[in-house]
Amino acid sequence: NAGVTQTPKFQVLKTGQSMTLQCAQDMNHNSMYWYRQDPGMGLRLIYYSASEGTTDKGEVPNGYNVSRLNKREFSLRLESAAPSQTSVYFCASSVTGGSTVEKLFFGSGTQLSVL
Amino acid sequence: GQSLEQPSEVTAVEGAIVQINCTYQTSGFYGLSWYQQHDGGAPTFLSYNALDGLEETGRFSSFLSRSDSYGYLLLQELQMKDSASYFCAVRVFLSSGSARQLTFGSGTQLTVLP
Questions:
Q1: Over the stretch B4-47, which tens digit does the pLDDT of each residue have?
Q2: CA atoms of A83 and B99, how far apart (whole Å)
Q3: Quick check: B64 and B56 in contact, CB under 8 A?
Q4: Helices and strands, counts by H and E, chain A
Q5: Which residues in B lie closer than 8 A to residue A45 (C-beta atoms)?
Q6: Residue A61 φ/ψ, nearest 5 degrees
Q7: How many CB atoms lie within 10 A of CB B96?
Q8: Residue A70: how many CB atoms within 10 A of its CB?
Q9: Contact between A95 and A40 (Cβ < 8 Å)
Q10: Distance between CA atoms of residues B72 and B88, nearest Å
């Protein structure tokens, strides 16, 4: 029962470096999401993918790109990291349609520090 | 605009009952969700109310009043392990997207004292 798996768990970058956060789910969910969480600010949606082959911007997409590689995998890329991107990143997935769409399953998170 | 308001902190003693309130302002409403997050952990789904009234799941209950744009999470028989952050969430339209997406409040840190 892996659920949603994120890698890496921790990462330190220097300003300007790039990196990709990986996410995979084994629950056959159509929808996948990337959120960031900063102290006292709750979770903010970066990008989401309602189904394989589609991606859309969320609330805070600037500085990020995403790829929905297949139904299982949804990656988040920082092309040129900035200190403002220091945060905890969570990947999540859900079924699509009906009331069950409200139930998101989250990965364990990636703590990213940009120096 | 759209917003979610919940208290930043709540403290209670073991065995007590605590209520965490959430008021929302959205253009259109599809339901109120609650998530729990322990320190260093991932958010986990607790409950979802689409209609007015009380939903009970064990020691946790969630209430919704759509006419008041208000809901709450009720935790009974508090245990030390209930110390965590609790987030309310609603599905809203984002200016950049075509479908409603889940938006979270800033969270309420619950501390359970022995």
A1: 999 999 999 999 999 999 999 887 777 899 999 999 999 999 99
A2: 30
A3: no
A4: 0, 11
A5: 94, 101-103
A6: -85, -15
A7: 14
A8: 10
A9: no
A10: 9
- CA B81 to chain CA centroid, Å, is 17
Q: Across the strands, what pairs with A92?
A: A33, A106
Smallest Cβ–Cβ distance between B98 and the set A56, A107, A109 belongs to A56
What one-letter code names the amino acid at B2?
Q
CB contact at 8 A, B81 and A20: no
Tokens of B113: 């004292």
Torsion from C-alpha of B86, B55, B51, B110, nearest 10 degrees = -10
Residues in a beta bridge with A76 = A21, A66
Q: What is the largest CA-CA distance in chain A?
A: 43
Dump pLDDT digits (tens) for A12-71.
999 999 999 999 999 999 999 999 999 877 899 999 998 888 999 988 999 999 999 899
Interface mutation target, options B88, B104, B106, B109, chain A, most CBs of A under 10 Å: B104
Structure tokens at B37: 């997050």
